Amino acid sequence: MRLVLPGPRPTARDVDGLCARLVRLYEGGATAVVCDAGAVTAADLGAVEALARLRLAARGRPFRVSGARPGLRALLDLVGLRELLGEAEEGEPAVGVQEGVEPGDPAV
Fold it and tell me: For 65, which of 30, 34, 52, 84 could close a Cys bridge (C-beta 3.0–4.6 Å)?
C-alpha cells in the first residue's frame, strides 16, 4: 500500500490525517506501507517529525519511505531514522536481513 506525504512541507493537519489513514490501511489488511515523500521539497524538522509520527502510527509494522530528496535523506540520517529509507545504518545489516547463527553460539 502507498501513502503520499504532501509537499512542499507537510502540516500538522496533514500528518493527523495520514496517521489515521495509515492505521486504517493496516486494519484493512495491509502488510506493508510505503510513504512517497517525493513532493517534500522543504526538508526540515517538520518533515522529519511527520515521518517519525507515521512510523509510530505503524506500531512496528513494515513502513518505509520512498522518493525522499537528498535534503530529507540527510536529515533522516542525522536524526537516526535512516532505516525508514530501507537503508542499513553504518555497521548494521540491511533491513530484513538476519545475520547467520552457528550451532552452539551463545545466546546474546
Answer: 84
pLDDT over 90 (residue 23): yes
Q: Check pLDDT > 80 for residue 94.
A: no
Using the 8-state DSSP alphabet, how is residue 8 labeled? S
C-alpha to C-alpha distance for 56 and 5, rounded to whole angstroms: 15
Which residue in 92, 13, 45, 20 sits closest to 3, CA to CA? 20
Compute the Cα dihedral for 36, 41, 46, 49 and give only its sign.
positive
Residue-wise pLDDT for 40-78, tens only, equals: 999 899 999 999 999 999 999 999 999 999 999 999 999
For the record, the C-alpha cell of 14 comes out as 496533514
Q: What is the distance of C-alpha 92 from the center of its chain?
A: 17
Q: Three cell numbers at 84? A: 525508514
Q: CA-to-CA distance for 81 and 74, rounded, in angstroms?
A: 10
Report the pLDDT value the prediction gives residue 106, as an integer from 0 to 100.
66
Show the CA angle centred on residue 19, arms to residues 67 and 61, nearest 5°.
Answer: 75
